[in-house]
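Hello,

I think I submitted the zinc ion job twice by accident. Can you confirm which output corresponds to this input? Input:
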Amino acid sequence: MANADRRELVEDDPAFTWEPYRPSGVLRVTHTSCCGMYEFASGGGTFFVLRHVGGARYEETGRGRYPIALAAYIALVKQHHADHRGRGERPEPDTYLAREGRRG
Ligand SMILES: [Zn+2]
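Support: Only one job matched these inputs. Its output is below.
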């Protein structure tokens, strides 16, 4: 699938600092973005965004309360969708984008 092949090529958004995933409590992934690029997850009472960086390695960003992590997720997915449109592709709709500004 062409989309999956391009996954590694998407540039980082400098607004987000990605750090190695730090396990905290039981990991629960509640939502996966277009192309499986980002995962909205929680563990140990905090929320964060995960991305797979190869093998068994994951990185996280936006860790904090629900609105913090959700804002990070939405910004990342919007950028990812814009990248698709820039290539003339249609991104997969993401129901979490409709949650913008809502309280968890
Ligand atoms: Zn995608």
